[in-house]
Amino acid sequence: MFDRLNAYRIMWVIVFFDLPTVTKRDRKRYTRFRKDIMQDGFELFQWSIYFRHCMSRENADAHVSRVKKLLPNKGHVVIMSITDKQFGMMEVFRGVEPIKTPDAATQLEMF
């Protein structure tokens, strides 16, 4: 049981994107992409950087596949998956003051 919940099995999927917003159509595509990944459970981390907690590599792969299906025709999108252990080693600052990294989502597991 504990093997399923260790920090090397739990994953975070991070989506970085830089999409054009020059035309009205570009802005609509940008907004649609952002809303679609948020509907899939991604949360804003920083401007144009969204992240999602996943309980396993298989779950992370499913969310990566969904994001790939949502990719707009123009722009630059990077999808990165890292372990919970790696995510926990991240240092986040607001100015020179360190701030706490986001907490892992809690999940109820039924047997």
From TrEMBL:
Name of the featured protein: CRISPR-associated endoribonuclease Cas2
Amino acids binding Mg(2+): 18
The keyword Signal is annotated on this UniProt entry: no
Family: Belongs to the CRISPR-associated endoribonuclease Cas2 protein family.
Origin species: Flavihumibacter stibioxidans
Cofactor(s) it depends on: Mg(2+)
One Pfam family hit: CRISPR_Cas2
Coiled-coil parts of chain: none
UniProt cross-references to InterPro entries, sorted A to Z: CRISPR_associated_Cas2, Virulence_VapD/CRISPR_Cas2
GO molecular function, one term: endonuclease activity
Presence of keyword Repeat: no
E.C. no: 3.1.-.-
Alphabetized UniProt keyword annotations: Antiviral defense, Endonuclease, Hydrolase, Magnesium, Metal-binding, Nuclease
Gene coding for it: cas2
Domain of life per record: Bacteria
Enzyme class: hydrolase
Signal peptide segment: none
Role summary: CRISPR (clustered regularly interspaced short palindromic repeat), is an adaptive immune system that provides protection against mobile genetic elements (viruses, transposable elements and conjugative plasmids). CRISPR clusters contain sequences complementary to antecedent mobile elements and target invading nucleic acids. CRISPR clusters are transcribed and processed into CRISPR RNA (crRNA). Functions as a ssRNA-specific endoribonuclease. Involved in the integration of spacer DNA into the CRISPR cassette.
